[in-house]
């Protein structure tokens, strides 16, 4: 059993954030200020400067990776937020679950389907909650897009297309070999895959993928970009391209039999997400503040723990995407289509999961961390 709710009288969940890279420092750590049912109580990093400066800034205990067990046993935490490289998600999830600690794990869930299934078993056997950090499952713009498509406003959705791209620096962890979860599809393509699954409310049956590489040194271990075609039941098609070597673009379009819906900055956690719905050459536009999506997902997960509810973006949701990622790389490597077996997903995000918190206006000062493009 988890050792948490009784120790904090059921009012809030106490977290350790594991790994203090760019995403943790820029978005996760500041988010706790807006999550009243959640408290940051520990940090885990092997960087002594991060431990000292961030521990002091947030007023919490710090641990090295070698002291992870000590952190789990401290009695000061109820949950971990795992922001480690993808190939370490399984190990750190298993170790937390074994100690009765709940797990909020960054996406992609893991590198292989087997690892995902192992994580799900670990959570179930130890009676702890496991959620994968799909922040857009609580974002008003994306959830409203789901409801618009379900309403039939654009007719039957037939086509999905998306581009998600950015420039990534050579020494970034995302540039590691795909065997440990590097590459564009694990990092960025997962957003496109997840989006079409919740917009189409279905799972793909066949994958065709092609990768390209412009030969730059930074792309020695991974592809520069990958383009994918996914066939869905009802003979619907979805396409996307994910890239580490192009300008920042984050958009998708769903084309139905009566009209289309476009989202710009669709996968963003900063600024505005813009939605356009066009029917009979008439376009309606609406802008949504990205708000603090990380606070939203932390609030949601803490609520699931406090009220013993199963999270919607569960381990099964993470597995659904990882099995598609694996099929994409198989198709790109073999040059052949890959058929996917039947996968039933009962729970999908909807408008009832919208959680809005204002954006954190202050840009945190990063300690030994840089954004993926290499900017400090």
Describe the protein in words.
The chain has two domains: 5-135 and 295-312, Rossmann fold, CATH 3.40.50.720; 140-289, Dihydrodipicolinate Reductase, domain 2. The chain contains nine helices and 15 strands. The chain has helices at 22-31, 48-58, 68-73, 89-98, 113-125, 140-150, 184-200, 293-306, 315-334; strands spanning 13-18, 38-44, 61-63, 79-82, 102-105, 130-132, 157-167, 206-212, 225-232, 236-243, 245-256, 259-264, 272-279, 282-289, 338-339. Strand 9 (225-232) and strand 10 form a beta hairpin. Helix 6 crosses helix 7 (184-200). Mean pLDDT is 95; it is low at 1-9. InterPro entries: Gfo/Idh/MocA-like_OxRdtase_N, Gfo/Idh/MocA_oxidoreduct, GFO_IDH_MocA-like_dom, Glc-Fru_OxRdtase_bac, NAD(P)-bd_dom_sf.
What keywords describe this structure?
NAD(P)-bd_dom_sf; Dihydrodipicolinate Reductase, domain 2; nucleotide binding; 376 residues; oxidoreductase; 6-stranded parallel beta sheet; Glucose-fructose oxidoreductase; Gfo/Idh/MocA_oxidoreduct; globular
